[in-house]
Model the fold of this input.
Amino acid sequence: MDIDDFRARAKRKRKSLSAFLDKLDTIVPVDMPELVAITDTTVWKDINCTECANCCKTMTPTFKKSDVIRISAFLGIAPAEFKNKWLKKEEDSGDWVNTTQPCQFLVDNKCSVYEVRPKDCAEFPHHNKKPFDAYNETFKNNLIHCPATLTLVERLKKAVERGYDWD
Ligand code: SF4
Ligand code: SF4
Done:
């Protein structure tokens, strides 16, 4: 995984791919779920998260109460200690998030709490959320963070523009 190459590609394509996602809100192909599923399968043949971990380095998950309880138990510490040590409450949303990046649990480019990681991490990058276009804002934001999302949206754009009257 060449992360510099990914960053350059994301910078170059972000605007056009975001415009595509915006347009997808108005022209949802009837076979969209199948198209996303098939295209996503091709993405994961080319991308290996263990060689990347860019989400863990540049973003923070949201820690729900159940996440804090589960991970604290795994680490053998109290939930309050867990929060004091690593988390802060975001003023606008009230969400509990990491105070630092990369994530404190990233060790040798791997998640050291993988079995009990936050639900948010387990579901990232949310490609199988339904309906797909309801998460366009998330995907737009993640274009510069996640090579898998960038690749998925690039491939979807190509497929949709080939198969539909897009003007
Ligand atoms: S908890 Fe694990 S998967 Fe989630 S951001 Fe931290 S290192 Fe990454
Ligand atoms: S989910 Fe995306 S950003 Fe995170 S490790 Fe996998 S490819 Fe990289």
